[in-house]
Protein 1
Amino acid sequence: MDRIDVEIELALETLRTELADAASRHTGGDFLARMLSLRVAMSRAMRRRYRALATQFDLAGQGGVCRLLEQWGDSAELHEREAECELWAADAEPLPAPLDARLWNAYFDEISVARSCEALGAAAAWESLSGAAVALGRQQLAASRFATSPRRAEDARGAELLTAIRSEAWDAEQLAELAEGAVAGRVMALRMTRWALGRCESEAAERRAPRRGARLA
């Protein structure tokens, strides 16, 4: 479990640093709207996968984890509707899912059955980082409006899943798979939070822009 904790804490620290660096260029509302758009875009697929994970043979002895996954599968539609309502309240429309979200879906579909422990580790990383990102976006937006931003239950889903994982017994192979999934989840989750920060788009634009003094063909 130490490796999983390290990977997730590394991702959270990276997110905090990058969000602080981007604060002067992007408002909390922009970032939050993009993170909520990701939540809407991924909710249906994650609902299906969490239900599937809860029935996998490799996790059959992990009752607490399976019950939590089943609960998330049952409540995913409400999770999606809450994100839509928050976007509506902010007068924002859900944005189309970026390519990285589709790559995440393809990766998760591939491992959900064949490597369920890896999928569980990846889910823990995603839930931890995305929940923290949404919470930070709300705090940034609240600060710009001189208001308070209460902590919401969905922000703590990552910690809830990690607690459930720690409460179970895992063999060495399962722990290795969990850690492998946490690494992949950290990488993919950071790519999606960077999309929410607009970094991918702005960096691509900078690469396309001609340098000062350069001659155009």
Protein 2
Amino acid sequence: MKSLLLNSLLAIYCMISSYLISGSKAQAEDWGCQVILCLSNPGGPTQYGECRPPIQKLWRELARGHSFPTCSGVGFHSSRPGYEPYYCDAGYRLTGDGGPRGRQVTCVSISPQPVSNALCPNNGDDFSARDNSVLSPHWQRQDGRRRCMGYPIVRPNMRPQPHYIDVTIDGSTTQRVWY
């Protein structure tokens, strides 16, 4: 996949370079070609100083609701802008429900973890301490011992750049770009 990305990047670079060297007058689509070239960089779209102005312009234009720029001769497709303000750390999944204060988003562990014994029912009782930070507390054998296990709930992280677009180059390389 890395070689495919590099080949796509090289093809785009050659197309843009030959266009720019040809002495043609600048056209509106130059910016779109610069954006595609910069987004194709495995090191990130703003790794190089030359890419910062066209990418910053892209973020501004997308934030205003404008469409993704075009670049003729390059096979690419962009999705509609999306918005995902929250994310979870590894080992957790994002969940949401309609709580008393509206939609609430949390991160729930994808596998059971040891939790306080006070949260599990004792001797067949259905009673367990109420704790909104753990789902489904239950007794489970682990390493030959009986342990109280549950699915911890934590607050989600906030993305500094919650908007995104998915860009597909040459029909095979898709990259999610956050802005």
Protein 3
Amino acid sequence: MKSYIPLLIFALIGVWSCVPKEDVLVGPVTANIRELAVQEQQLSDANTKFALKLFEQIVQRNPDNNLFISPYSVHQALSMTMNGNQGSVLEEFKALLEVEDLGLEEANQAAKDLTAFLLGLDPQVNLAIANAIWYKQEYQVQPPFKQTARDYYKAEIAPLDMWDPNSVNIINNWIAQQTHNLIRDMLDHIPSNAVMYLVNAIYFKADWTYNFPKANTKKEKFYPKPGQEVMVDMMSLGEPATFNFYQTSDYGYIEIPYSSGQFSMGILYGYDGNTEELTKRLTMDNLVLWREQVREWNVILKMPKFKFSHKIPNMADDLIALGLVTPFGFHSDNFTKLFSNPTDELKISRVIHEALIEVDEKGTEAAAATIVEVIERVSFPPSGPFTLVLDKPFVFFIQEKHSGAILFMGKLENPL
């Protein structure tokens, strides 16, 4: 198999965007290409396999809706999380992330190297990948876990007052900053028994290699389903340009390049518009086939402008269906390499994911973020003073300590 990075997957399900500039690109610029190391290629393949199965799983829950995710962001967030585990739980993470053939340190090093390769690949593409970890300020994170997160994922690590309602803004503001304000107010609340947040944010912005002239954009028909039509802003190159293209009697595949052509938007289309059938064709073997057998064709391309976002409040059920089971239930084997101080049993309560994409005449802009929320079975009040506000109806009673007798009981619905 020839060396490649999962360009189509980034394009189809979550990583692409555009850098607005005054200069019009008329062809590819030079990219900083180097041969991938063996472990980088293994991780690249792992990312692709993970992306394919995650996308297929989520499509099943969203058969008729627009869908946009960043598998790379999810993979990064869960890869950081993986390092807090050992034994059978670690193996569940490795199986989900398709890195069973790599040792833990090898997987971390490959993640670091592949990310560095992507970030430095094309000077005309604005790609940013950032990680951060916040933990309960009363707890102590094990030094090896901290070191791994910093060395391999360049993660910012800081304590957080989980009882402070304003702490949610710290995480949301960080995500907004990393995604150029495209992803905002992603985290709705922090439960009192939360002990850690592991967050990835990714941003991509790039011009098309061949920009669509704005004057060519016209209202034209788009057919969401057989017998249905809507009017959309349809972009058109107006004249032929060279694209990598693969076609059969049932479907086609085209790569629409950005800048140097190292990044592209891969589009898989069918003549009947059946995306369920297209998703079934989106396999690792087919990806290899398409990439190896594409031919350069002169195409007058027309495609709609579009912009939408997609948020998954909790990917837990999807990840459980893909085999990551133990970490989503309280278990003594979970996160044994995370904290130095004793804790109650831990679990992942939520994996929140949000992504946004905008495609126009100049290029594509996209951003995504993933939040892994780890909680403790029980919640203890902080050791210092804290504020409790009884600002909703409550039940009360008067009792005798020694006998346990309750003398009076009542509830307050309205003090006035």
Protein 4
Amino acid sequence: MARSAGGTTRLLMVFLLILSCAALLLGIWLVESVPSQAAEVFGPPAPHLGLMQRWNLSLRLLLAQDALTRPADPDGVERKFTVELGEAVDAVAFRMEDEGLIRSSEAFRNFLIYAGLDTGLQAGEYQLSPAWSAVELAYRLQDATPMQIPFVVLAGWRAEEIAAALPTSGLTIAPDAFLRAVKRPAQVDLPEELRGVKRLEGFLYPGTYELKRDTDVNSLLALLTAEFAAQMDADWLAAVEAHGLTLEEAVILASIIEREAVVDEEAPLIASVFHNRLQAGMRLESDPTVQYALGWQETAGTWWKNPLTLDDLRAESLYNTYRNTGLPPGPICNPGQAALQAAAYPAESPYYYFRARCDGSGRHAFAVTFDEHLQNACP
């Protein structure tokens, strides 16, 4: 009986030893396997995490894998989300869950700590979508660079000046690609009213546009021309036609008015001078048309040479309205609302001449005859 009891004890000890070894092996497997599986799904952990912290977070992430990798709303759209300066990670996570951007604030916070992104959370405004996973959202919050940026087109800019603003705008559109598309807009989805236009100079409506950083050249031009088309209501088109102008001719005239009128309220009176000259068969003799023809001035660093010399006024170009009667072959800039309205609704006046006043106000002195025009010259 004693030997039988001893044998049972030995068997129990062997069993316990085997069980202990199995538990040890299982523990080793869990210690190695859980972080390995987490790394496969969520990427490597932050290097500063200790062994137990890394294992604990890895297990938590695996258990919450669905909440972290599936979007809260696959059909959701982007919306503005602001991270305040000094706002705690927990507070950001709770707000994101409340606003339906993520499924679980706890899982989101654990991932931020696991990936070492909790310390890189930046204050700022973001465009975030619930159609993105929590993992993607975590990385988006590391860059406070706005997803949308303002892009400004000033009234009176020619296409080259718009192109020159692109490199510092935050957009990825190359100036050369922009100018090529302006000259040959075959790939641009133009508004129906502009589909016969061969060049887009003059039809790029000035204003401030909120654009996504990845906006391409064709999308930008489609937006600018769509905004231009939105300004052309039936009354404006009828007024243009009543003056015997086509749409493109009205834009050409507006572009000249834009460059001549320093003060918007003078635009209708300046327009009346050009309308009067066109009806009388006189040359427009507008300095900005010569400036456009001369192009870039390396020494002065401008597209608009000023002052012009007598030799400049003799420049051989179809755009030179000192040499050619009627309108130039195309717009010389991209006019704004005041100039477009003035081209269609000029003031009624007897004037055929105008020149800048000598007081530096930007206003003009108008004259009926050339002799009066000469008398308006500065001393």
